[in-house]
Each structure stands twice: as C-alpha cells, then as structure tokens.
Amino acid sequence: MADAFDNILGQPKVREFLRASVVSERVTQAYLFVGPAGSNKTTAAYALAQALLCPKGPTGPRGGSCGACDRCGRIARRKHPDVRYFAPAGANGYLVEQVREIVADTSLAPIQAEKKIYILDRVDLLGASAANAFLKTLEEPEDDVVMILLGRTRESVLPTILSRCQVVPFRHIPASEAAGIVSQNTGAAADQARQAIEACGGSITAAVAFLTAPANERLAFRSRLLGDLSRLSAADDWDVVEMARDWVEASKAPLDAVRASQEAELAENADFLAKSAIRQIEARNKRQLSAKTSEYLRQTTAIVRSWLRDGMMVAAGTPELVINTDVAERLTELFAGADAGRIAGAISRAEACDKALAYNVSPETCVDALLFDVREVLNGSGRTD
Ligand SMILES: [Zn+2]
User: Fold this and answer.
1) Measured between alpha carbons, how far is 137 from 362 in angstroms, rounded to an integer?
2) Residue 260 contacts by C-beta under 8 Å, 6 or more apart in sequence?
C-alpha cells in the first residue's frame, strides 16, 4: 500500500525510520532533519505532517498516512492551516521578532486538526539570540505541537538546538541517481530529467513538479528562455531590455492560477472559519505567492547558468558533457573557441543575480544586467574578471 512516505524519494532509511516511529507511536515533539539542498527534507517534513494528522492514522500494514484523503491532500498542496512553514525573514537569518511570533502561535489551539505541525526551514540560519527565544518551546512544547526543523549540516546548527531534537540525517543523492529517480517518477528521458534538475537548482522534488506542471508550462518556459539565449548575440540594447522584462513577466504569469485556487479555497472555507483564521490563511497565501515568484525567478537564473556551463564544456572541447542536449548544436555554434574565463565570469554574475534576487533587488534590474553580461560574452567583448 502506498503512503505519504513513499514520496520521500532517494532516502530509503529516512522513509523507514519515520514510518516506524509513527507506527510504533514513538513520535517525538521536535525533529531536526539535516542534509544538503536537494535531499528532500521539505517533502519528508510534509509527509510526516500527513502521517500525524491523517484521520485514518497509521493503520495501514506499513503505517503512515493514507495520502489520499481530503486532509492529506490539503497538506500535500501546502494548504492545511495547521501545518505551518517558516523560512528566515531576515536577509541573514531568522529575526528574534519572527521567532517570538512563532512561539506565541504555538500556544493557540489548532484550527482544523488535533495537532499543529511547525516546519522551520534553514535552522542553520537561526542565530544565538533568535535561538534563545525558541529554546523553551523546543524543550517543553504544548502537547499538540510537533516541530520539524530543517538544516543543512549538523555542525551548522547551534548545539543548544541540536541537543533538544531527534536528529534525522538525509544523504546526499548523487546526480546520476537523482536523474534516475526523476525519470522513474515522471516517465521523462534521462536527458530531460537532468535538464529539469539543473533548472531546479538540484532539487529532485522540484524537478518532478517542473516536468509534470499543467500544460507543460515549465518546459515551455525553459524552451522560451533557451530560444532567447540563442538569439541574444544578435540582439540590440532595446531587444535585451525587452527580453529581460518578458522573462520577469513570464516568471509571474503562472501565479494567476495559484491565486485563483487560493481564492476558491478560501471562499469554500469562509463559512466555518473564524476571522482570525481567515486572516492567517490570507497571510500564508501571500507568502506562498511570493515564494513561488522567487522559485520561478531562481529557475530563470538556474537555466541561464546551466546553459553557460554547457557553453564552457563546448569551449573546453568536451561537448559530450553538455546537459541541455536539445540545444547542443546551437551551443557549439556559439561557444566553440570562446574564452572560458569570460564564460566563467558570466556564470559568477548569474550567481550574483540569484543572490540579489534573494535580497529583493528588482528582478528586472538583475535579469537585465545578467543578459547584457551574457551578450558581451557571446560577442567576445566580455570582461574577464
Ligand atoms: Zn489521509
């Protein structure tokens, strides 16, 4: 029988550990999932939330949630009001104020379920003073609260946090295995799976979503970007400015569907939810929209980086290492004999663009600057820093 834990791709040990804890009722109130980016920690956190809140409970022969009921569905779509996700609000990590709000929230009763699940991403960015505001809650949480903290490595998490949690280690999933997992779950060919993983910054779960988006919308987005890049060397300044504006627009366009489904869901629940709960859901919806926008913008820069990296492979005389094989021919025309140092410069500027976006610099400005840089590289006049 399938259950929610099956979605934790590439982490068989984690799957068995969490399943066993739920079945034998050895669930603790504070977990710390540690593992590199792309190791499926977030998916695992939502699967555990399903297992803990599913009204059918761990009754199946393998335990875990049913994964199919209304509540499991809401949790999987990240729309259940009692499963809360938090990421650092400050540029350098969690703010003390933010942690105080989370702590205050834990003392409120659940809205729909019997328990509340708090997922705190990047607790390696929880500094000493923010952590202090959090320790008591972590040590003696309310009975109906389960905390799932996510961090990159054990060493990067403060010892005071580490010692209060059940640590669950996630393994690094090698690239070839990751592509296999994505293929298996989407039916995509190995090449396409690798391209999707690259576009999603290494995340397997995101790559599966990328390949299975409605109407192949993400794949069309990728083709459009690669098409524009292949024409960039002949573009004049105004073409580049327009291209940047189009890309940013295209990153925001699929959000209309997300917004419509949020509004429908809210209307459906409006009758039986208290005003304060509705306000909470509205705030969460807003966060979800801005998280989606930045995810799509990150995919934009990731696709540019991946394309430039391929250009580097061509310039280095190893075209067999190209990942975006569907545009291999054009890559060869553009990059054969190109200066590897210049390409490397453009790649690091794409990374800088990514960082700037995280700090809320205007996306048009970042993408615009990036495209001008790439054009310089293509036309052989790029800086070699
Ligand atoms: Zn269920």
Assistant:
1) 37
2) none
290 Cα to the center of ligand 1, angstroms:
28
Question: How far does the centroid of ligand 1 lie from the alpha carbon of residue 16, in Å?
Answer: 18
State which residues form the domain around 112: 4-169
Looking at the domain assignment, is residue 202 inside a domain? no
CB atoms within 10 A of CB 83: 27
Rounded (5°) CA angle 207-289-182: 10
50 inside domain: yes
pLDDT tens column, 294-303: 888 899 999 9
Same domain, 161 and 231: no
Q: Does one domain contain both 165 and 271?
A: no
Q: The tokens of 56 are what?
A: 């059918």
CB 314 within 8 A of CB 272: no
Which CATH number covers residue 27?
Answer: 3.40.50.300
Phi, psi torsion values for 58, nearest 5 degrees: -80, 60
Answer yes or no: is 195 within a domain: no
The predicted-structure confidence for 279-317, as pLDDT tens digits, reads as follows 777 777 777 677 778 888 899 999 999 999 999 999 999
Number of other residues whose CB lies within 10 A of the CB of residue 1: 10
How far, in Å, from the CA of 360 to the mean position of ligand 1?
Answer: 38
Name the burial class of residue 331, with classes exposed (0-12), middle (13-18) and buried (19+) by CB atoms within 10 angstroms of its CB: buried
The count of domains in the chain is: 2
162 with 242, same domain: the answer is: no
User: How many whole angstroms from 310 Cα to the centroid of ligand 1?
Assistant: 44
Taking the C-alpha atoms of residue 202 and residue 219, their distance in angstroms, rounded to an integer, is 16
CA of 47 to the centre of ligand 1 (A): 10
Task: Report residue 238 as tokens.
Answer: 């105004």
State the distance between the two ends of the chain, measured CA to CA, in whole angstroms.
56
What pLDDT score was predicted for residue 382?
A: 47
Q: Are residues 157 and 276 in the same domain?
A: no
Question: Is residue 193 domain-resident?
Answer: no
What residues does the ion ligand 1 have nearby, CB within 5 Å? 54, 65-66, 69, 72
The answer on 232 and 360 residing in a single domain is yes
Cα of 63 vs centre of ligand 1, distance in Å, is: 11
